[in-house]
Amino acid sequence: MQAAFQGLLVILIGVGAAVGYFYFSNVYLDKVVFPARAQTADELRARRIKAPLISFLLVIALVVIATFLLPVLVARSMSDVAAALLGGFGAVWALATSISGLYVLVVAVIAALATRLLLAGDLSGIGQNINRANLIRPWLFLGPALFALGLYLAYPVIETLRLSLTDRVPIPGGGGAFRYQFVGLDNYTQMMGEPKFWEALRNNFFWLLVVPAMSTVFGLLAAQLTDRLSWGNIAKSMIFMPMAISFVGASVIWKLVYDFRPAGSEQIGILNALVTSLGGEPQTWLTVPFWNSFLLMIVLIWIQTGFAMVILSAALRGIPEETIEAAIVDGANPLQIFFKIKVPQISGTIVVVWTTITLVVLKIFDIVFAMTNGQWETQVLANYMYAKLFTSNDWGVGSASAMVIMILVLPILIWNVRNARREMR
């Protein structure tokens, strides 16, 4: 299957599935669950039995259809479509016999119970049915998003926690198969006994101290200074441009900046070319302990400064002109206006930018993996987790380190959400 046709097919199926879901779910709500007509006691009793059963079967059917169609969407040629259709049956069977199938079953049961609860009370009149349907209708639109969040966020967290408390033990004569044996907190104990974990934790702490602070400071300075230039929009575009580059792409660019060639050779790395032009010796910058971590941080600061600048520039433009004019009348100089008038008024935005970049730093992986792979004392938690999971094949310790990252991220995430809700009020 050609890539263009495959992409078009995915779009058509995705859009068609979304439109079909919203249309038929509303028809189901208005015709089956809460019909806009008066009903007898026997009809209401039958509806309370039929509607939950239909809800249960609908959830199962939607997941089965989606699982069945998935192999078709990834088929590489039209001749593979028939094989993909057969593969769809295998995908459905694999889903039914896995823990994901149990998750789908739980969701279906919850849908049936929710439908039954919604049908409680007096629903014999037309008005009661219409009012109840209008209360439920917004949740039909939220349903797919909640399902996806549960499948791709809640379920992985629970499964990671389970894996962090177990160990994969080979089954004798099982042909490479494994079973999971509960070991309690042994994986966490083993992780804390490894020097690489503490190195990763220490480096993450340094990243937290440096990157959010520098990115926010440079972003604030860029926002303030570019607003005073006639060509400020062009400058902002240039500063923001690194945000459009992936972390791996940025790592490749900066790896060339730090590139090393032996003394006497032509240096293609900008930093070593500058050093040798001043009479110094070229250095393998990424292998110098302690300082190499700061050289990696520069990459993320370069990327995140544009983000901080855009948010803080909008906040600066939102400051009432009256306060600035009053300060000028009182004889305040530009520095006093900036630090004593502007910064206090956008302090809330500064904190939001700081914490948002902090969340990025706690999960930093790509830059370290692409530039040093955690060597030369540059290890961070996310790269440590990756190494344990996919290099050492130690799922227990790898999952334990993932839980540590989640525990570190969660308080900041909750604070950000609560702060956003407070500002909305």
From TrEMBL:
Please state where this protein is localized: Cell membrane
Alphabetic keyword roster: Cell membrane, Membrane, Transmembrane, Transmembrane helix, Transport
User: InterPro entries from the xrefs?
Assistant: MetI-like (IPR000515), MetI-like_sf (IPR035906), UgpAE/MalFG_permease (IPR050809)
- Superkingdom of origin: Bacteria
* A UniProt-annotated Pfam family: BPD_transp_1
Q: Domain (ABC transmembrane type-1): give its ranges.
A: 201-416
Tell me where the transmembrane regions lie.
Answer: 7-24, 53-74, 139-158, 205-226, 238-257, 294-316, 350-371, 395-417
Q: How does it sit in the membrane?
A: Multi-pass membrane protein
Q: Does the keyword Nucleotide-binding apply?
A: no
Q: Family, per the entry?
A: Belongs to the binding-protein-dependent transport system permease family.
What this protein is called in its record is: ABC transmembrane type-1 domain-containing protein
Organism listed in the record: Sinisalibacter lacisalsi
